[in-house]
Amino acid sequence: MPNSDFLAQPSLPRPEVGADDAAAVAEHAFGLTGRITELGSNQDRNFLVDTGTHRYVLKIANPVFAVEELHAQNAALALLAGADARIPAVLAARDGDDVVAVEVRGLRLHARVLSFLDGEPLTDVERLSAEQLRTLGRLSGSIAAGLAGLRHPGLARTTQWDARIGGDVVALLAEHVLQPAKRLAVLAAAEAALAAIEPLRRRLRVQAIHGDVTDDNIVLGADGPGVIDFGDVADGWLVAELAATVTSALHHQPEDPLAVLDVIEAFHAEAPLDDADLAALWPLVVLRGAVLVVSGEQQVVLDGDNAYADENRAHEWVAFDVARRLPFAEVEAAIRARLAHGDREPDSPALGRLIALDSTDAHLADLSVTGHDLDEGRWQRAGVEDAVLGRICRDNGHALTRYAEARLTRARLDRTEPSPTIALGVTLDAPAGTVVHAPFAGELRLVEGAWLLHGDEVDLWLDGLSRPLTTASVDRGEVIGSAVRLSAQLSRVPGWRPPAFVTPALPQAVWRAVSPDPSDLFGVDLAAPASDAADVLSRRDSSFARVQEHYFAEPPLIERGWRHHLFDTRAQSYLDMVNNVTQIGHAHPRLVRAVRDQWALLNTNSRFHYEELSRFTERLAEVAPDGLDTVFLVNSGSEAVDLALRLAQVHTGRRTILAVTEAYHGWTVGADAVSSSLGDNPRALETRPDWVELIASPNVFHGRHRGLASGPEYLAELDEQLAALDASGTGIAGFIAEPVFGNAGGLMLPDGYLAGVYERVRARGGVCIADEVQVGYGRLGHYFWGSAQQGVVPDVITVAKAMGNGHPLGAVITRREIAESFAAEGSFFSSAGGSPVSSVVGLTVLDVMRDERLQENAAEVGDHLAARLRALGERHPLVGAVHGMGLYLGVELVRDRRTLEPATAEAALVCERMLQEGAIVQPTGDGKNVLKIKPPLCITRESADRFVDALDLVLATI
Fold first, then answer.
1. C-alpha span between 57 and 49 (Å, rounded)
2. Is the pLDDT of residue 411 over 90?
């Protein structure tokens, strides 16, 4: 029988062997009797045989494996006997052979018995200590070294764990990953890994390897660690042995993936890695993770009762996900630095001057997130870095970039992975013929188009150096050439050039060890100011009231916005899917210029007379529903709601306000009084003042009556409540509600509901207030005002948020007679409401919305986004419903679509995971289980697709 070939027979269900079958084989073939317990295995059947005095493992192989393969495994065990680890011993059968043929349920199988190694499996340890990680690496390396001389015909086999066919295995088994987003992630990562491995294939050393020295197969016992399960022994790449070991360690501390450097360093001490191994290692880790994921999914499909395979799937995905998120070159740099210097940070090298020019801070370019040379979207322009350097050169004679600066110019929008933004080198722009000196003695040679000065302590890589194309030994201070544009990067890894730009995935200390600060070369501090998000958060908490909450447990430090994107100080972009405050997009140049120009002229309060106020209020009256012709300007939505309530009470001479449950209207005393959202105030229902009459929320998803046709049922309940108020002599001042329930994530009201309520309230002389602060002002796309969707015209509209694009601006729009009623309580005044700057802000927002067709964009992109989100519900049971319209949407997550139990914890986890994917979204609703999706109205279809793709993957993997 030929050796196995997984590609020829990829389906390997375990043979049908029960405990009784195993007992019979153990007794008849090996003379062993005792208690039989099945052990885990992906493809074979393994049983613990406890005789009462000794314990053994009975291994019954999958029939696809040839007997020569089993003999090769036994040969490996024999070769390693006496090694620096406990190794199972082979027990001969009754007939003296170490592999015997047995018949089980009519099937010819091969059986072996090995001694059982006592101990705790390393896989059961939640977090591995540094010593355990080193043990894992040392064992893997010593096994690899010990097997280097093994030659056996049974090693020439093709297993699914052979890294040399890893791409084939992933392609063959990917269909078993049922979630499309998860499958695409696996295929994309495997493709990237294969592309990195391909040029290295012929240089990777092949020998006999264990193939699975992993946490599953290391046991820690009183007599020392042991290595078990030699079922994957075969010829393979030496470095693949380490890749399997490293992959198994990743799920133990996913937040600290560089902990595996201990594994790698320990392996290297036993089985030294060469240059090709180091370049291939992390791509092989990613490929191994991909193979584990697809194989685990396939095995569960083939063998549904295989608890071992099923239980492993979760941590196999974690390992794969951690590995795929780390750039290959960056991990390679960290590995090379560790193997070169150990785990200590080397001393700073002694450096002389590279350039004799005197520099000050005025010569330094600011290409960071806060650099004003990059305002108005200039950071996206081709050649912007050259332009900034050129400006500084013209002003100051020469220019320099900064070391370790996270450059906004390198940020990627709609990113699927971290952007490499952090510069590990610096660039000088100088007058022609600027002389360049050797900052230390060494050998200068040309390497792939760049000059490398190799010294005793450090290497210096130079681009742009003009000199004869000859290798030379140079002394410190010697002239080595000239330059106009010179880029310089130091490296502590001899002969190897680190990446020029890296992501924030690894700690800054790693890069100081790999590519140290070159400031001494130029005689000026070039290190970019450090940014510590955790420290800033601590300072915030020490001085800012903590009840003013912040998004995320460990929030990024956001310092710039552009359109529908936000940027942290590491120059990583995030899709802003939660910011209905920023209606026309962040940092809109037109708005920035308008505010700057107006502030240069005048900003005061509205008691002064200036034209901008009149222009703005005229425009608001124009866009308001018919009949609403009078405007109050305030500085927030809460203030607007508070004023609207007072208008209703003063106009009617009554106090009682009807308000729906589950609603949120603001934080002032009045606005809070009519807010009953338990998500914002758990005691809301028991703390309402006596002038607030709560009526049932017409929640079409999980209310007492459901569906858009439930309006008559809710109105019938309201009739009963109104009759009771009438009977008690309680007059109604007004009714307030959002025309679309924003706090519930854009939940639409039942058809005709507001018309019915307004009719009943007006019949009793009350005022109808539409709170449009969250959902109005064009956000619904198909309607400018939410009340229009319900086919009603309110008596009073409150609006804020969107109208100021982040500036504190709000309005109450009503009829003249209602506004004039307020005179009974004196005049009205809001210090910032209607100021010249506020008026210019409001006008410019309306102009931009009109000129850029943002309401139309909300309809077009919003409809596309909603359709894609609803499609997620077809494959993710967690998605209970998608609410809303235009660009005010909500994805309600539930644990059970029948009971509608809120998936509160899952929603919080989704938001944290989405941050990792480069998108900001937050939960809302009484159960904090609705993902509120309300981005700036300028969002593109491409960004909407990126958001849904990310959410698809997150939902598939939580």
1. 6
2. yes
